[in-house]
Amino acid sequence: MKYKKTSFLILLTILTSAFQIGAMHRIFTKNFAKKTFSKTMTGLNWGISAGQMIALGLYTGYQNELFGNELSIKTTEVSDNVKSFVRDTLHDDKIIIKNIDDPILETMIPVMATSKKILIGKSPFIPSLESIIEQDVPEEDKKILEFTLHHEHNHIKSKDTLRFVTALCTIPFGIHSAARLVGRKVIPYITKAFTKISTKPKSISGTKWFFKELIKIPSGQAKYTTGILSFMAYHRHREQKADDNVPEDIDILKGGARYFRKHIKYEPNFHYNPFLKILSRLFSFHPSPEHRLKKLESRIKNLKQQESS
After folding, report:
1. Nearest to 225 by CA among 49, 105, 107
2. Are 290 and 269 in contact, with CB atoms under 8 Å apart?
């Protein structure tokens, strides 16, 4: 009887201890899993919304020689006559001119400014430097290239590559701060104002908590899209600024207007679908050719009025 009682107490102690250990382990595992899952979702949110843009910014800086590296695009030297023409046009003896030596990129990038160089490709709208040197093109087409060179030179003088990299690396933090402000201040205030219900935090059930954490992925994508759209808007502003800083020369401005008229003639026509037209402008790094042409024509008109007065 004595041994049976002792054995029963030992067994009860073992079972009680096992139950306590199991309960503690379950609680610890549950909290640890929740924390791990929450941190993972937060990491994905930041990776999607900020990591992609910062990586794009650093790659843009690397690709455009901003960090002192060699240019990633293959290039070849231009002739001395071309160098002389470009330097005389821009009144800059230190500017570096290169030809793009890539059969695909040279057609995709007619003219491009890095942080240090102007790269020349091929375009059906812009005459080549060689044809201008050899005087195989009309004077009005020559002014198209002069306008383009001044535009790209303005990017270099304004250090726009540095501006773009800085924007890509900082915009995500501004978007995140704005999202937090809306989520923590604006939405509860609106809810309280319209529903007249207290917005004190309540306990969240497991299912609601799970979906609250899971929503961080589409939230990150939304912030990334907002960030990219913000950067594109800033890029369009800088492109227009480069146009606006082209010298007040009627012939050069007419060359720019001639270029945009050619561009408008051959670009896809979205007038039949306003929605597609809006999307094409919203997701663009450059202002619309129509907008740029309108501004150039306004400047030409003002210069003509000044000359006639």
Report:
1. 49
2. no
pLDDT at 26 over 70: no
Q: pTM for this one?
A: 0.78
- pLDDT for residue 28: 41
* Local confidence band at 190 (pLDDT 50, 70, 90 cut-offs): low
- Supply 305's token pair: 């009025």
CA distance 57 to 55: 5
Alpha-carbon gap, residue 238 to 267, rounded angstroms: 22
The confidence band for 207, taking pLDDT boundaries of 50, 70 and 90, is low
Strands in 111-113's sheet, in edge-to-edge order, are: 75-77, 96-100, 117-120, 111-113
Rounded CA separation 283/231 (Å): 10
CA distances from 19 to 7, 12, 14, 27 (A): 18, 10, 9, 12
Average pLDDT over residues 28-32: 55
Q: Measured between alpha carbons, how far is 56 from 284 in angstroms, rounded to an integer?
A: 16
236 and 284 in contact (C-beta within 8 Å)?
Answer: yes
Secondary structure element (H or E) that encloses residue 97, with its range: strand 96-100
Query: Is a pLDDT exceeding 70 seen at residue 193?
Result: no
Extended beta strands in 170-286, E state: none
CA distance 242 to 246: 7
Contact present, 153 and 102 (Cβ < 8 Å)? no
Q: CA separation (Å) from 245 to 109, 148, 157, 231, 253?
A: 21, 12, 10, 21, 11
User: What are the Cα distances from residue 246, in Å, to 34, 239, 295?
Assistant: 58, 11, 12
Query: Residue 223: helix, strand or coil by DSSP?
Result: helix
Contact 248, 77 (CB under 8 A): no
Task: Give the pair of three-digit tokens for residue 138.
Answer: 């009309």
Q: Which residue has the tokens 């990591």?
A: 51
